[in-house]
Amino acid sequence: MAFRCWIVARPLSDAVIVGAAGIRCEDGSRFCRHERVFEVALTPALSGSLSDSAARRLSRGEREPEGARVVDIFDQAAERCEADTALAIARQLAQPALGVGEQRLNPDTGEVLCFECWEEIPVERLIAVPGANLCVSCLTVLEQQRRARRV
Q: Are strands 104-105 and 16-19 parallel, antiparallel or unpaired?
């Protein structure tokens, strides 16, 4: 269920949420010409933890009871964005590193071979990235393919 409300953004002060009953300033007067008004649909996704009764009060332009948490939907949107970013970072960190893991060894020489091209992986790469199982050229190709899939 979505409720309609407006956000009055005043220069030098906090935004005020007012409802469909009319756009009013905190002192009860109509909003001034220098204020910008944004109409916002107060949906459950935006209102987050707002109870239905709190959302109805906001949509009617009523104030929160004394001591109640003041809800700013812009702050809530920023918090949601931060949470989504943190989740994306956590998912990316949970993925195994590309080109690192089980290694393929040449049975004759004991050298580490690339999983893609079967060429020997240089010692310098193995020192830089212990556990590397792809040579630099094959790793570059796979990274480019991954980027192309994301776009």
A: unpaired
